[in-house]
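Saturday, quiet lab. Running sequence design on the structure tokens for the scaffold JK sent over.
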């Protein structure tokens, strides 16, 4: 597949004489990768949003079957072009080829999963309350409601998941499944990967006969294109995965609009892990190996790597700490996604090394893995120790009692995940810890590790701020479709004007709540 380096705007391409140009860094050898990519101009941004706005009413009318058809077609075209991605993406990210194969499988899998959701149709949560014209003292109106698409959505590509959370990642797929056009702001660290994916999506859009503005992809050397998209009056929602600073800036920007729009941002999380005494005694060596694997997965560049591990000051903890320390010393600096991320990681570990009350237990050298240690009272008092260090660094927090474990948990802000390792007896004795973590995390994991997020119907990849901008939402799993919709009620609407999901005969055969009762009635 030949790469041009220009934005994809509906069925067309951007101009080569547009804005600032840039190249992707080759993370494998320190060089760069052709072609030159051109930052989208103000006119190209306007064209992409205009086309999306024109496509929105038609997409909202299309059936779930048609939306599913598009998502399956995107998966099929991606599979035809897998070789191009397997060649390009490792160079732009430094990830090994096997990681790209795994992420590719997740990407096409989530496309087909959302296709099933769109086709089945019950996700719209249709509700019907029949009218009663004879009711006294006033007649009861007929009221029916369901979830309807918001309109054009802008999605920001993530640095650490170039396939599964980027140009055609979960945000894009959820928005398309809900019936929204999407404008993607491609991540500048992997523009070639973004262009390959964008061309695949554009081909599927054309082959399925969807409106031209269904999908566009814009390149940007910096942040100006993203800012312009978030402020554009034609954009109705934002999907973002990245740093707390980036997500917070988008939230603040969107709030300044005359018509503020939702920003669904997945941001910072240290994903605390709590080790209970019996589990440590029974399987401490096993926990140490698995913990190190979770810590260093993806060179520590996953949003779910465990950055905090808290445990009671038990004799078994010493063996766990020594085992983790030995593994950390054997984990030197790896290739990171960008020079900016590498520099940020080195600043973060440098601050931890100098932090009063924090001991450096082990490291793999500058840029490598790190294990630090502090006491619970120090951790609870100093909120700075709760901040994410994005990379393979973790802080062991020593607790003198079960009560201190709870205080550590209660001192923390919102998290994507929280994990507890314990026997059944451990867990029953620490019910208060379980309850404290439930209030602070979107996903509570028992005897498992946070890295590896299953894309399924029940998954929650979210959590209270600052893990996400809206702790009621998820950015992974089929429930993420609900971010890009709003509920609309139709009162006394003639049956022929209602969406099929709300028509009396239920022609789609979906699950609905009718007069307060769940059920399915086929026409």
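Result came back. Writing it out in full:
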């Amino acid at each position: 597949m030949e790469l041009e380096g220009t934005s994809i705007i509906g069925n067309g391409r951007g101009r080569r004489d547009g804005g600032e140009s840039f190249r992707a860094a080759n993370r494998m050898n320190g060089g760069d990768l052709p072609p030159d990519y051109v930052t989208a101009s103000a006119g190209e941004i306007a064209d992409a949003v205009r086309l999306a706005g024109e496509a929105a009413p038609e997409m909202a009318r299309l059936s779930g079957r048609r939306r599913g058809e598009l998502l399956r077609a995107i998966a099929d075209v991606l599979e035809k072009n897998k070789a191009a991605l397997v060649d390009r993406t490792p160079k732009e990210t430094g990830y090994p080829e096997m990681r790209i194969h795994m992420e590719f499988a997740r990407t096409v899998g989530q496309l087909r999963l959302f296709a099933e959701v769109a086709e089945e149709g019950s996700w719209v949560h249709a509700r019907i309350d029949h009218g009663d014209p004879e009711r006294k003292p006033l007649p009861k109106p007929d009221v029916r409601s369901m979830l309807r698409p918001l309109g054009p959505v802008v999605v920001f590509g993530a640095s650490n998941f170039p396939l599964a959370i980027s140009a055609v990642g979960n945000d894009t797929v959820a928005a398309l499944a809900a019936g929204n056009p999407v404008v993607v702001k491609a991540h500048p660290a992997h523009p070639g990967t973004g262009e390959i994916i964008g061309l695949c999506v554009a081909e599927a859009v054309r082959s399925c006969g969807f409106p031209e503005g269904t999908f566009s992809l814009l390149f940007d050397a910096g942040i100006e294109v993203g800012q312009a998209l978030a402020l554009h009056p034609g954009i109705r929602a934002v999907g973002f995965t990245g740093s707390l600073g980036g997500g917070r800036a988008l939230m603040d920007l969107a709030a300044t609009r005359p018509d503020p729009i939702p920003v669904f941002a997945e941001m910072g999380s240290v994903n605390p892990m709590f080790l209970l005494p019996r589990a440590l005694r029974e399987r401490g060596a096993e926990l140490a190996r698995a913990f190190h694997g979770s810590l260093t997965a993806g060179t520590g560049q996953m949003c779910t790597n465990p950055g905090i591990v808290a445990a009671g000051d038990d004799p078994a903890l010493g063996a766990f700490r020594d085992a983790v320390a030995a593994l950390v010393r054997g984990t030197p600096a790896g290739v990171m996604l960008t020079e900016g991320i590498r520099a940020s990681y080195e600043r973060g570990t440098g601050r931890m090394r100098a932090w009063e009350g924090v001991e450096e237990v082990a490291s793999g050298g500058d840029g490598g893995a790190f294990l630090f240690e502090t006491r619970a009272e120090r951790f609870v008092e100093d909120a700075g120790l709760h901040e994410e260090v994005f990379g393979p660094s973790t802080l062991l927090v020593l607790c003198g009692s079960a009560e201190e474990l709870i205080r550590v948990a209660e001192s923390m802000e919102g998290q994507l995940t929280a994990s507890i390792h314990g026997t059944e007896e451990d867990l029953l004795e620490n019910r208060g810890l379980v309850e404290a973590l439930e209030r602070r995390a979107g996903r509570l994991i028992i005897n498992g590790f946070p890295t590896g997020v299953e894309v399924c119907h029940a998954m929650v990849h979210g959590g209270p701020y600052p893990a996400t901008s809206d702790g009621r939402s998820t950015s992974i799993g089929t429930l993420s479709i609900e971010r890009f919709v709003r509920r609309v009620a139709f009162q006394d609407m003639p049956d022929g004007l209602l969406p099929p999901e709300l028509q009396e005969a239920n022609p789609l055969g979906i699950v609905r709540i009718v007069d307060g009762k769940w059920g399915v009635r086929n026409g």
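Notes for JK: The chain is about 40% helix and 20% strand. The chain has a mean pLDDT of 97. Ask whether to fix the surface positions before the next round.
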